[in-house]
Design goal:
five-stranded mixed β-sheet, 2 domains, 60s Ribosomal Protein L30, Chain: A, Alpha/beta knot, single chain
């Protein structure tokens, strides 16, 4: 059973994992270096736990202690009970959901590890918006994508905002980082995948025309909001694909575009 500890001092060193959660640059550096990430909200905490992540501690406002009682009773990690005001002092924002957990990261698999059993893969290049990362992971999980590969400069899927927006889907879809870009795409092609670059360029085939759902193994490449895929990534692709637009709209937000493309890629996919 976890130890329930009431804390009244925002400077208590036991709360260090939760300090400065709104300082993006600090948390980007600190969390991977210290091997932790923050799960926010009851559902996300439960999903992280169910996915096998080890809990370091929980930070709960009083009314959430009973809600999380079954989790508290199962875990050896300390649980810090605080007032909403103290939680805001520590974290830097109003913790609307009243429950935070510090979780232990796990070593990432390699791209080769994931490619062996996958059929439908997402590849992100330079996607640095945490909301977009979370939205893409949520769609990838919901629409049957098998794995996500990230270019070296993509944002951290386990950053608090990404985890929250994904509703814990970052725990459901395995992911890895490619060591080099775009050279790392060679390993994807060598594993038998067709590299499809999603772009609004008029020279690209429509998804209907390309019919990725009929392909045996597909890796769908997505670029950052605004800039899209780089020239190097487009050159490295086997084929360019696009989502047909109407009413003069030139493109969709990358999160929305990803969901549409995932459906087109995964529908009627070959059975393993």
């Amino acid at each position: 059973m976890a130890e329930l500890i009431t804390v009244e001092d925002p400077a208590d060193p036991r709360l260090r994992d939760y300090t400065g959660l709104t300082d993006v640059e600090l948390r980007r550096r600190r969390e991977p270096a210290e091997g932790l990430f923050i799960a926010e909200g009851e559902k996300v905490i439960r999903r992280a736990k169910d996915a096998g992540y080890e809990m370091r501690s929980m930070l709960l406002s009083a009314k959430w202690v009973d809600v999380m009682r079954d989790v508290i009773d199962e875990l050896p990690a300390p649980v810090y009970a605080v007032s909403p005001e103290l939680a805001e002092q520590v974290t830097g924002y109003h913790v609307h959901r009243g429950a935070l957990a510090s979780m232990q990261r796990r070593p990432l698999p390699t791209a080769v590890d994931l490619l062996g059993s996958a059929r439908r893969v997402v590849i992100m290049e330079s996607v640095n918006d945490h909301t977009n990362i979370g939205a893409i992971f949520r769609s990838a999980a919901a629409l049957g994508m098998d794995a996500v590969l990230l270019s070296p400069d993509c944002a951290d899927p386990l950053y608090r905002r990404s985890v929250k927006v994904s509703m814990g889907a970052v725990f459901s879809v395995p992911y890895a980082r490619l060591d080099a870009w775009p050279r790392g795409l060679d390993a994807v092609r060598d594993a038998g995948f067709t590299l499809l670059a999603l772009t609004p360029d008029e020279k690209a085939k429509s998804l209907d025309e390309a019919a990725p759902h009929r392909m045996d193994r597909v890796a769908l490449m997505l670029g950052a909001e605004g800039d899209g895929l780089s020239t190097k990534a487009l050159v490295a692709a086997d084929e360019w694909v696009r989502i047909p637009m109407a009413h003069g709209v030139d493109s969709l937000n990358v999160g929305a575009a990803a969901a549409v493309a995932f459906y087109a890629v995964a529908t009627g996919r070959p059975q393993a």
